[in-house]
Amino acid sequence: MSEKKIRVLVAKPGLDGHDRGAKVVARALRDAGMEVIYTGLRQTPEMIAEAALQEDVDVVGLSILSGAHMALAPRILDLLKANGQTHVKVFLGGIIPDEDLPRLKEMGVTGVYGPGANTEDIINDIRGALAEKA
Amino acid sequence: MTLAASILAGDRLSLARLLTQVENDSPEGRAALTDLFPHTGRAHLVGVTGAPGTGKSSLVNQLALHYRKQADQRVAVVAVDPSSPFTGGAVLGDRVRMRDLSGDPNVFIRSMASRGSLGGLAQATAGMVQVFDAAGFDVILIETVGAGQSEVDIARLAHTTLVVEAPGLGDDIQAIKAGILEIADILVINKADRPGVENTERALKSTLELAHPAQRVFRHHGQYMSVAVDLPIDKQMWIPPIQKTVSTEGRGIPELVEAIARHAEHLRSSGDWAARERARLEVELEMLIQEALVARFSASVPPQKIQQTVERMAKRDLSPWEAANFLMNGASE
């Protein structure tokens, strides 16, 4: 029965209350055979990093529609690093202006998805990013 | 430093990693469990089970908060949610109700998917609980999959099992069915601010009275008559108390924690603690032997042999019993 499952934390940092996108993604990843830990709304970066540690996830998916991604994403990346979870891949979804993409990539965000993104792409990108690591 | 040693030294990242290894049943995980085993046997394992939506996660949240604030106990939570039988994927949502526990280094919450197990726990839950026990957690709260009627594995794992009910879920016939109510050490009526709580309480009480009669009341020609029951009353016997809680507000939680402590005290004074411990180890041994036997069988019988046998069964050439016998008795030769 021993098998390795991809574990993903899906979290919504910050104050916006729209979690439909996060739930759609969580459901799609579930259907792709992954184990998704869903943490709910209004999480602080500290709460997200703590959950990522306790759950020993491979991937953190952040959904941010508030425009605060340039503040929240680096904070979460720093906390993950401080906890020794440098191997964790961070994906970002929401309303993210194109001009922010280069800087987000530079910070260490693996993938960014806006409205209309295909869940198939997200699944393939997660699998690809984890295969690279191994 | 080995994984086991860094866990004993209190490293949380190693703890998280080992939990994954144990969950995946890896060789490293098994080795570390062996190293850690002598350090286990100290924690109080409290199981929380009940139907979906009765408020198990919120109750676990409140219990953990109470243990932290009132008693300064280190608390681990293992929360099991179901895996999809089709894709093997899962959405584990118990943490949503446990956000109050965030930021406390003496609380560790781990979600796990049931991965095809049907008894309300996952196969690796017992191993993960051992890891937390060795890591020095005083109380380990184990939340099962939202259980229906017969997911009773938790009673074999936990010292104290809470069965959580909520008003409006079932009548007194549900309450006398075999299964989940039988395993309760403590019955919790959560959401006790909802209408119908008296009915739920009455149904549970009458079930308990059937199981533990102190006196019997008859109605005979319209007259109530009560007869004392002559059974020798065993003072050692534990009668499950009914605790009412409203976990969204924390009502009834101190009383519930007290009842849990009373049950632990009862187990220790009656010798049941050691008996349960032994029973649990026996079940675990049995499970491991079964796994090993199945693994040995699969290794010794070529898959095409099994396929051929299935073909013969499909042609009604062999009955299922004959087929099993055939494969067990030297089909490998």
Radius of gyration of chain B: 23 Å
Question: What is the topology, as strand order, of the major beta sheet of chain A?
Answer: 2-1-3-4-5
Secondary structural class of chain A: alpha/beta
What's the count of strands of chain B? 10
| Number of helices, counting only DSSP H or I runs of 4 residues or more of chain A | 5
Query: What string, H for helix and E for strand, traces the elements of chain B in order?
Result: HHHEHEEEHEHEHEHEEEHHHH
What does this entry look like structurally?
The complex is a heterodimer of chains A (134) and B (333). Chain A is an alpha/beta fold. Chain A has helices at 20-31, 45-55, 69-82, 101-107, 119-133, and strands spanning 7-11, 35-38, 59-64, 89-94, 109-113. In chain A, strand 3, helix 3 and strand 4 (89-94) form a beta-alpha-beta unit. The termini of chain B are far apart. The mean pLDDT of chain B is 87. Classes of the chains: A alpha/beta (134), B alpha/beta (333). The A-B interface holds A 1-5, 7, 26-27, 29-40, 43-44, 46-47, 50-51, 53-56, 83-85 and B 12-13, 16-17, 19-20, 24-26, 83-84, 87-93, 95-96, 99, 102-103, 108-111, 113, 115-116, 123, 291.
Describe the SSE topology.
The complex is a heterodimer of chains A (134) and B (333).
Chain A: E1 7-11, H1 20-31, E2 35-38, H2 45-55, E3 59-64, H3 69-82, E4 89-94, H4 101-107, E5 109-113, H5 119-133
Parallel strand pairs in A: 1-2, 1-3, 3-4, 4-5
Helix pairs in contact in A: 1-5, 2-3
Chain B: H1 3-8, H2 12-23, H3 27-36, E1 44-50, H4 56-71, E2 75-81, E3 90-92, E4 107-113, H5 125-134, E5 139-143, H6 153-157, E6 160-165, H7 172-176, E7 186-189, H8 197-211, E8 215-220, E9 223-228, E10 242-244, H9 253-270, H10 272-300, H11 303-314, H12 320-328
Parallel strand pairs in B: 1-5, 1-6, 2-4, 2-5, 6-7, 7-10
Antiparallel strand pairs in B: 8-9
